[in-house]
Amino acid sequence: MTLPFSDIAPLDKSVPGVQPIEALILPRLPVLYAKRAARLRMLAEHNGAYLEFLASLVEAQKFWLEQHPITPEQAMPVTALMGVGALAPVKPTQQLLATTPYWHTAFKHFVHILAPLVSEPVASKLEAAVHDTPEQLATKAAALFNQDYAAVDAGVAVLLWSALSVYWAQAVALVGVQKHTAQAHNEASCPCCGAPPIGGLVLTGDREGLRYLQCSLCETRWHAVRAACVVCHATQHIDYWTFEKTDAPIQIETCGDCHSYLKIFRQDRDPQQDALADDLVSQTLDEALEAQGFARAGINPFSFPS
Fold this sequence. Notes:
306 residues, 9-stranded mixed sheet, 9 strands
């Protein structure tokens, strides 16, 4: 049951000072996938079969990455779109999506591996999508890039985005962080590919206390100053909320000016957190904030909005 908004406790707004740091952190994909799959399986013990399915999907991403790494030539269509220097990333055209077969093949592999793990109605939709032409697959992918989530079956969308992500993340990594410049640290879209974030991470270790946003597509993390809205950049009406005690590892940052919110994962309080996995088991927070008229700044590609 969703708790009433009045039961959410406001958190301390104090933010520690930080030293200058990297604007961007590119993903180490094999490590990221291994940790994410393990986290999903751990969370699945108390949160149901869907997280077990997602763990298998992430393991399929890791296998595909290791068995079929992309070449610089395969990455060229994506790298031509990426935000480099003073240029903003460009959204892929439907034609480009139709003529980049790497992610088509990855999608079909994911369906082959994962369709036996789902119900017959879901499996039927996945297997039907395997027979789509490149142009039909591109139409579905373009709808996701344009945030027209209702245009794509939910089960198909999860596997499509996972295939696109394996492709985009490798392409971004091939360019290298030295060629990227995060243009606006508080932008609510990835400076490399333009996709929305999953959420924010407050890191631990040698980046203790620093906030990064994590891309829902290419897995890049980009620095965002804390206690500032990532949508409108306002700082005067920022609040933090949680159902739990004030040192909870997951919290919501709201902006009273533009009425957006961002989910924050405090890895400085729980280093095992994964933004994508832990978001799925904390959606009552989203429901409480959305009931109050706040709109999420970001998406979880394993749970697209309906």
